Amino acid sequence: MQAIAINKTVNVESVMGAFAAKIDSAGFNAWIAPLNANICGNCLTLVAQNQFTADYVTREYGKTLANIAADFCLDVNISVRANNNVVVSANDNVVCEFIPETKTVQNKNGFDSFITSDENMFAVAACKKIASNESSFSQLFIYGPAGSGKTMLLDCICNTTNKNVVRMSGGQFVADFARSLRDKTIFSWKDFCRNCDMFIMDDVCALAGKRATMDEFMQLIMDLHNAGKNIVLTANGAPNSLNGFDRRIQSLFASGLVVDVATPNAYVRRSMLLNAGVDMTVANEISKQINGDGHLVNGVINKIKTYTELMGERVNMDVASRLLADVLNKTKTPLMMVKTMCEKMAISFDEICGNSRARRVVRARQIMMAALKASTNLSLTEIGNICGGRDHATVVYALSQIEKQKACDLILNAEIEDMIKLCK
């Protein structure tokens, strides 16, 4: 009789009030309050807006809710709203469905379009394995400098696999996370990221220093891993060398297969130029004279193609030398190095080669000798001849003076490093 009497006075407000008294206020406001609650017979039904919310509430608060409901002689049932077209927001009754931005795929080629070098062979093989959905590793972390082909490998994976792929850049993840919080679509966004067979993120470095975003991303990676989903991540550095990431997430990144990719070597640069229709003689010569990354090679290809289209003539080596003067490496002679250093140090070449014993001239002359010694294979006699016909003993004395001063003069060290860079 007492149970029946209690049951007659039970209503949703009293039960929810009991929940609020037993659960911390932050957890109640974030997870319990937004649920639609109703009592039918001896069962309290809590309706969540999506499966993620229902699973989380069941896992974190299920036992507590059941114990409190038992005081009212009620059972608890946590379900998901049946109507998928209307999703109730966490704080009000507005529609809150996350709609991802559509993006146009630029590269629709497969792995055949990726020119493989010896340095990148292992990384390409790993990408092919994960694209075939036969990988035994939990996640693939690809790192390498800008222009090494990381994004192109991701294109190849997306164009080869037949599984459902969610792909985004690190910057897009940060923006979508902030947008979902602003628009109150966070739970729908969480479902969007998790409802896939493969999750791909290009440039995780964009998350550096953003604590809330990194915590959300870390939880996403663990959920995907526990669900047996494939994960592919890229960055400019190895996991343990990433700045702005704490040890937890560095360890998580390193827990799968970590592979590196190198910038294009001369063979890859030549192949890229030939595939773009550049004349073989020009391709052979240009590939030796540019040491840049894949982005620079693509820029060269675009410039050659545009010139051919606008001018209506093929690009030979004479035209290429003039057209690509800003990117082609020119061999620096020792004399050119000295003159360049003179300009940098605001001192005339005649003063360096003359007999002046002024302190600023002597200091500049000694710095140049040290820079030539460090950046070239010239003998000390050859260095002395370039710097105004100084003998071997004079160069030895100059270098010994520089070594003594470097031990206690940081500014001198920086000046010498700058001069060495000019000589290379």
Give the N-to-C terminal Cα separation: 95 Å
Number of strands: 8
The number of domains: 4
- For the largest beta sheet, what order do the strands appear in spatially? 5-6-7-4-8
Low-confidence stretches: 1-8, 84-95
The major sheet is characterized as: 5 strands, parallel
Structural class based on helices, strands and sheet pairing:
alpha/beta
The portion of residues assigned to helices is: 40-55%
Question: How much is the average pLDDT?
Answer: 83
Radius of gyration: 33 Å
What is the CATH architecture annotation of the largest domain? 3-Layer(aba) Sandwich
Strand content: 5-15%
Which CATH class of the largest domain applies here? Alpha Beta
Produce a short descriptive summary.
The chain contains 20 helices and 8 strands. It has helices at 2-8, 12-22, 25-32, 51-70, 121-131, 150-160, 170-183, 186-194, 211-226, 247-253, 266-275, 280-289, 294-311, 317-323, 334-345, 349-353, 359-375, 380-386, 392-406, 410-423; strands at residues 36-40, 43-48, 75-80, 139-143, 165-169, 198-202, 230-235, 257-260.
Describe the structure.
This protein has 424 residues and is an alpha/beta fold. The protein has four domains: 79 residues, GMP Synthetase, Chain A, domain 3; 150 residues, P-loop containing nucleotide triphosphate hydrolases (Rossmann fold, 3-Layer(aba) Sandwich), CATH 3.40.50.300; 58 residues, no CATH class; 90 residues, Chromosomal Replication Initiator Protein Dnaa, Chain: A, CATH 1.10.1750.10. It contains 20 helices and eight strands. It has a five-stranded parallel beta sheet with strand order 5-6-7-4-8, with helices on both faces. The protein has a three-stranded mixed beta sheet with strand order 1-2-3. Strand 2, helix 4 and strand 3 form a beta-alpha-beta unit. Helix 2 crosses helix 3 and helix 18 crosses helix 19. The longest helix is centred in the first third of the chain and has 20 residues. The N terminus is likely disordered.
